[in-house]
């Protein structure tokens, strides 16, 4: 056995550094590495525009999972800090000229009254803050305003007033960027759908003189059932076509045909599904095809293991796109849990070894193992038949209340009755010792990691506060 594993003090020193490095890697390093390793697609010309595309941040609230109180606050904090880190480093490292958010800013946005919605929007804005001069366009999602005939008129007007218009046409990198509100477009109410319909018809009249068009929509376009999404997909290999309260996985088929025919986009960018998908659509009346890129969700609690975003490079002759992945947050937390267990096992092994060998114990082991003497009993005790030939298991020393005595009960008959009674009592003794071990395990762990936690906790807090400065 390596001598290092026999010295609790050396293990504690090692674990202090181990946890400091682990927390730095998990809270900062992996974010830097993932974002820095995904590069802008290189354009063939120097005249290019860089656009970062994110989708479905959908900040968690009590509409998300039905949580309340402290649990809700914890979920909100850890989902918020993930997006805060990612969005900040995306700006610092990639420095895009434009950021487009494809919608679903909040999870329960359409359900909130104005007095409740405003604090949630301020929370959203504190996460998604522009650190440099850049253009940011935020589209509406079905979680923000509803969809189709269930669009919430008050939520739509509030979005227009506070966030911005839901329909826009902008010029970027030699392309015409169409941010289309397809949520209201599918409403049967002319009052709700008129603005989106008018924009589509205006675009149709410009078909002969417009620059290449890129269409942005929150909800993906219709496609035949079981159309494969490509190798970057993390969940089902195709995009489902479900309908439900305030959501649908795809636009209606007639809406999709209408948009492709009237707008004739070079490509389509969508969100809502929370996963990556790439499909091709035939543009009616032409031999052209429009590729649709569905961008994965930006948050880690969206039902897809790994969050993602996209980097889009625009240049006059065309565009290039790169899908990028963010850190696997659940994997980071699993690593923390496994490291905690291994830390405890290392300390338990070292302290128990010194006791078993009769070596001078480290004072931390003395205080830790004094909680009932649990590890000493469990690791070095032996179950032997007593020397005097009596039947029964080992007895605890002393005559006090905690002493264990085994007594034969005259209820067994046959040649093996004495052995049977001894086995029963020995099993009971082992169960009692196991129960005592488990009942004292938590306070033992708390004491064993105290010195490590005193060092690791300030590191963890400082790594979190780094993204609030």
Automatic annotation (TrEMBL):
- GO BP terms in the entry: GPI anchor biosynthetic process
Classify the protein's membrane topology as the record does. Answer: Multi-pass membrane protein
The transmembrane residues are: 14-33, 333-353, 440-468
Residue limits of the Calcineurin-like phosphoesterase domain?
50-274
Major location category of this protein: membrane
Instruction: Look up the domain of life of the source.
Output: Eukaryota
Question: What GO molecular-function term can you cite, just one?
Answer: hydrolase activity
Q: Which UniProt keywords apply?
A: Membrane, Transmembrane, Transmembrane helix
Say yes or no: keyword Transmembrane present: yes
Q: Does the record bear Transmembrane helix in its keywords?
A: yes
Which locations, inside or outside the cell, does it occupy?
A: Membrane
Provide a GO CC annotation, any one.
endoplasmic reticulum
Give the protein name, as stated in the record.
Calcineurin-like phosphoesterase domain-containing protein
């Amino acid at each position: 056995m390596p001598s290092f594993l026999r010295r609790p003090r050396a293990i504690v020193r090692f674990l202090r550094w181990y946890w400091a490095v682990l927390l730095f890697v998990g809270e900062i390093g992996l974010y830097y590495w993932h974002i820095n390793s995904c590069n802008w697609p290189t354009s063939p010309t120097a005249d290019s525009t860089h656009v970062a595309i994110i989708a479905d941040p959908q900040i968690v609230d009590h509409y998300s999972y039905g949580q309340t109180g402290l649990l809700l606050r914890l979920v909100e904090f850890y989902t918020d800090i993930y997006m805060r880190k990612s969005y900040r480093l995306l700006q610092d490292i990639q420095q895009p000229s434009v950021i487009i958010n494809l919608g679903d800013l909040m999870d329960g946005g359409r359900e909130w009254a104005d007095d409740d919605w405003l604090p949630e929007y301020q929370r959203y804005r504190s996460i998604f803050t522009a650190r440099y001069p850049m253009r940011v366009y935020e589209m509406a999602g079905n979680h923000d305003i509803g969809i189709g005939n269930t669009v919430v008129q008050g939520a739509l007007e509030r979005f227009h007033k506070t966030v911005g218009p839901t329909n826009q046409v902008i010029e970027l990198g030699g392309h015409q960027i169409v941010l289309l509100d397809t949520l209201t477009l599918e409403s049967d109410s002319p009052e709700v759908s008129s603005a989106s319909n008018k924009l589509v018809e205006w675009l149709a009249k410009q078909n002969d003189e417009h620059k290449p068009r890129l269409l942005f929509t929150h909800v993906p376009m219709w496609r035949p059932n079981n159309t494969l999404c490509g190798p970057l997909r993390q969940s089902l290999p195709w995009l489902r076509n479900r309908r439900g309260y305030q959501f649908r996985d795809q636009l209606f088929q007639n809406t999709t045909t209408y948009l492709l025919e009237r707008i004739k986009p070079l490509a389509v960018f969508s969100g809502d599904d929370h996963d990556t998908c790439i499909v091709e659509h035939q543009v009616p009346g032409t031999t052209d095809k429009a590729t649709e890129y569905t961008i994965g969700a930006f948050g880690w609690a969206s039902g897809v293991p790994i969050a993602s975003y996209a980097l889009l490079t625009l240049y006059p002759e065309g565009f290039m796109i790169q899908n990028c992945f963010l850190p696997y947050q659940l994997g980071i937390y699993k690593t923390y849990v496994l490291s905690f267990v291994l830390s405890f096992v290392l300390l338990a092994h070292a302290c128990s070894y010194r006791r078993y060998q009769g070596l001078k114990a480290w004072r931390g082991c003395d205080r830790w193992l004094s909680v009932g003497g649990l590890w000493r009993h469990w690791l070095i005790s032996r179950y032997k038949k007593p020397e005097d030939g009596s039947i029964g298991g080992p007895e605890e020393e002393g005559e006090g209340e905690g002493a264990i005595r085994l007594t034969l009960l005259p209820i067994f008959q046959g040649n093996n009755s004495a052995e049977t009674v001894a086995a029963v009592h020995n099993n009971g003794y082992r169960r009692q010792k196991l129960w005592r071990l488990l009942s004292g395990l938590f306070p033992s762990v708390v004491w064993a990691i105290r010195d490590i936690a005193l060092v690791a906790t300030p590191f963890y807090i400082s790594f979190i506060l780094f993204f609030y400065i």
